[in-house]
Amino acid sequence: MGAIAGYREQEHTADWALEVWAPDLPELFAQAARGMLALCGARLEAEPRLECALELEAPDAESLLVAFLSELLYLAEMEYLGFDEFEISIDSNRLRGRICGAALSGLNKEIKAVTYHNLSIRKTSRGLEARVVFDV
Amino acid sequence: MINIQDLRKISDYEWEIPKSFRQDMRVPVRIFATRKLIEAVMDDRSLEQAVNSATLPGLVGHVLVMPDMHQGYGFPIGGVAATRYPEGVISPGGIGYDINCGVRLLASQIEYSEAREHLAALATAINHNCPSGVGTKGHVRVSESELNQICRQGSRWALNQGYASEADVRRTEEGGVLEGADPGAVSKRAKERGLAQIGTLGAGNHFIEVDVVEQLFDAQAAQAMGLFEGHLVLQIHCGSRGFGHQICTDYVNEFQGAVRRYNIQLPDRELVCAPLDSPEGKNYLAAMRCAANYAFANRQVLAHYARKAFEETLGGKVPNWHLHQVYDIAHNMGKIETHVIDGERMKVCVHRKGATRAFGPGYEGLPEEYRSIGQPVLVPGSMGTASWVLVGTEGSMQRSFGSTCHGAGRVMSRSKAKKSVWGEDLRNELEASGIHVRAGSMAGLAEEAPQAYKDVDDVIETVSGAGIARKVARLVPVAVIKG
Description:
The complex is a heterodimer.
Chain A: E1 6-10, E2 16-22, H1 25-39, E3 42-44, E4 50-57, H2 61-79, E5 81-91, E6 94-107, E7 113-114, E8 122-124, E9 127-135
Antiparallel strand pairs in A: 1-2, 2-9, 3-6, 4-6, 5-6, 7-9, 8-9
Helix pairs in contact in A: 1-2
Chain B: E1 8-11, E2 14-17, E3 29-32, H1 35-40, H2 46-53, E4 59-70, E5 77-84, E6 89-90, E7 102-111, H3 112-115, H4 119-129, H5 144-153, H6 155-160, H7 166-170, H8 188-195, E8 207-216, H9 219-225, E9 231-238, H10 241-261, E10 274-275, H11 279-314, E11 323-330, E12 332-341, E13 344-353, E14 356-357, E15 376-379, E16 387-391, H12 394-399, E17 403-404, H13 414-420, H14 423-432, E18 436-439, H15 442-447, H16 456-466, E19 470-482
Parallel strand pairs in B: 3-4, 18-19
Antiparallel strand pairs in B: 1-2, 2-3, 4-5, 5-13, 6-10, 7-9, 7-11, 8-9, 8-19, 12-13, 14-17, 15-16, 16-19
Helix pairs in contact in B: 4-11, 5-11, 8-10, 10-11
């Protein structure tokens, strides 16, 4: 965990778990999204790039993270789009901003859902950390 | 952290974590496993998750754990929990995202020896007819009003559309339709995801497999099911696809607020729940039943296309290429059932998460031909090993809310499996041992490698030894089709 922000796959017997860390909440969300994309083996077309406006609200930061990742799973399944750039702000459990990406050229594996299992966003000496478990 | 010393041994096949183990437990945990199978999961969090599940309000009897247990999210996989109806709770996480994930078994009169030279073509034809993989759309597109019919009618919808026979529907758990489904309780987003996915297999551990009946253990039950040694059978393992995943996602999210409103304290947010008689609980139950019915219809449409593949490949080449349905069972489900608990007959909501209903002989709801033998139980093993057909027993009715195991159970993480196994090597090994493989993703194939699972025969010896199921037949694979 040398980098100030990143993600790493963690051992889980049946499902997938992702450890994510970042200095602030928007970057933590972005890292979780990139990690999820990597777990699925998603590949994006180089062109054309596209962007969407996104606005989500939830009762707490963990629920907002689940809603954000679930939204990206929905766009991958229904629109076959993947997103890897995030210009988002999070204030009072409200996420607003733009997400940028492209059509998927390939998706190896299916994630059924983002779970709340032992999910908590923790403050550490290096910023924020979370562990997200996906049902696969 | 739980140690094996914390468990009280009841028999060689049964163990208990007493209620006194943790202050917030409402009932004890009862584990059906040998010492070897328990030791296999001491490194993961299955037992801790079972203890967490034992904190749900309204639980009765024990929280049960089957020998194929492994770590899940919230509930352990292999978990069974019953809550008193209607004041107990229902927990979407105790049923899972893939609502009514289950298995269908079709049997044939086709001798392996006469079909052997056609198996490669058969695997290709099934792969072509039964769409699989991530985000795949099916041959069948339905309108929203047809989707609402699927939600209410399950396999009956498939029958009306010509995808099923009366016998198929009769030989499906609950006759392929749960009453009380309400499409009005399902979100627009779940419906969007459901429209194009009827008749699709998906990816992950879902598969279609052609097997040979290797050995029979109960001639009378095998006869009733139409199973004969050396004959081909077909298994279909899948669930409610994105439709069910979205319904569970929606309600796990909504119930985060419900637990606050009903002042329910839980050790894990994935266990969120609501009283069965609350508006939230009733809505989830109505939506969950839509997904359950969707899954029954989904497996029925896949069975229709698998039969088409058999006809295309074997029609005119073997004397009888017909596939008849043995049974279709759910292993992720919440059901309102009546059981005798501590001598009291009561209505309960049985949560089965990676556990199969296993009703014993004589129980209502079983088709006439199975009334005297008990309900068929279908237990797929890991890829390339063996699968089993069992029947429910009086013991399962008395001790496990009419439930038993559902598979082999993982022991190795997916990340470790894909680091230690190459998908291409595994495919070559399987092909060399006479198993035809059609897989959409080599990485996905590696994650499902047999070495990532327990030995299914150990699991079956345990449920059979514990008396919560009885052996009928062992099946070995000859063709595997995966997304």
